Amino acid sequence: AHGGFGHTELEPQANIDVITTAGLRGDGGAGFPAGRKWQTAAVTAADPKYVVANAEEGDSGTCADRRLMEGDPFLLIEGMMLTGRAIGATHGVIYLRSEYPVAAVVLTRAIGIAREAGLLGEAFDVELFVGAGAYICGEATSLLESLEGKRGEIRVKPPPMAVRGLYGKPTVVNNVLTLCAVPWIVRNSGAAYASLGVAPSTGTMPFQLGGNIKRGGLYELEFGVTLGELVEKWGGGTRNGRPVKAVQVGGPLGAYLTPGHFDVPMTYEALREVDAEIGHGGVVVFDDTVDMAEQARYAFEFCAEESCGKCTPCRIGSVRGVELMEQIQGGAGADRFVLLDDLCTVLEDASMCAMG
């Protein structure tokens, strides 16, 4: 009644072209162009092909996927259908984190309604898969391993998943936010979406404000809003009125920025210039009483807990990081900082995925 499921008349290549024109990128963290991923899967000769929605929303301070799936599940289903039509897929899977039981109930009901209405079926069907609480399965190749019934571990790339993904077949894995943007783009044109934001970071991002913030919540804004505007204008500053000391952007493995970065635009490119990533749009605010050494120790502890264990730098380095931070907190000398810096270089350069 409100325009949903009414825009499937575009030919497959036209669907890909409109997404490419829009400049839509993966909103899960990597920011890879969706149109390029779709095109690769479409031209790869294999059958069947798959569309997978990555709903393993594990970063601290994030809730956008859950809000969308619980509030408008049909938007995700329609986005998956349009993606499937574009690449020639007949099957879609929603990989949902186990911590979202309400979303599981809502999605199951929505898939059933869509099947009863004839929207899902032989041409394209969707199933729900509930994970087992592994943060690492937010990484797309680990997610596919889990879907296949294996241990959630990183796969070596190449080949890309669009060539050899689920069960060795061409697979498009996109984040929930990315797939939910597709129906609007198809309905309103790629140019309309590209006019939003700051190219090449086009469109919008649902930023999630949390931590010590006066007005926490979900704010869908165009790319290019500054970090300071997010925290001060939209979030209202800290909840207790104390000065901001640090802002975590991009989850527990992202970056901690300071008020000195408040003029940085929230785009993929601008954040990379300050060694940060936009991630899933999570923004967590800390006031001037935060213990940053403890935050650093916690980041290593989180990585040690959630690492899949496949590569040595991440598996062992994260544990060594916890030990080094505890020594530093206990008053160890400057040599510990040198060792810590060396360890971080190894983790960043030698790990197989972004966890390290």
Describe this structure in words.
With about 350 residues, the chain is α/β, with parallel strands linked by helices. About 40% of the residues lie in helices and about 15% in strands. It has a 5-stranded mixed sheet, covered by helices on one side. The protein has a 4-stranded parallel sheet with strand order 3-2-1-4, with helices on both faces. β9 (about 245-250) and β10 (about 255) form a beta hairpin. α4 crosses α7 (about 175-190) and α11 (about 290-305) packs antiparallel against α12. The protein is globular and about 65 Å long.
Can you describe this structure in just a few lines?
The chain is α/β, with parallel strands linked by helices and 356 residues long. The protein contains 13 helices and eleven strands.
Labels describing this entry:
single chain, 356 residues, alpha/beta, four-stranded parallel β-sheet, globular
Helices and strands, with pairings:
Blueprint: H1 12-22, H2 34-43, E1 50-55, H3 64-71, H4 73-87, E2 91-96, H5 101-116, E3 125-130, H6 140-147, E4 171-175, H7 176-188, H8 190-194, E5 197-198, E6 201-202, E7 204-211, E8 217-222, H9 227-234, E9 244-249, E10 255-257, H10 268-273, E11 282-287, H11 292-306, H12 312-329, H13 334-350
Parallel strand pairs: 1-2, 1-4, 2-3, 7-11
Antiparallel strand pairs: 5-6, 7-8, 9-10, 9-11
Compute the average pLDDT.
Answer: 94
Distance between the termini: 47 Å
Low confidence ranges: none
Q: Which radius of gyration do the C-alpha atoms yield?
A: 21 Å
**Structural class computed from helices and strand pairing:** alpha/beta
Number of helices: 13
Let me know the largest β-sheet: 5 strands, mixed
Number of strands: 11
Q: What percent of the residues sit in helical stretches (DSSP H or I)?
A: 40-55%
The succession of helices and strands, N to C, reads HHEHHEHEHEHHEEEEHEEHEHHH
Strand order of the largest sheet: 8-7-11-9-10
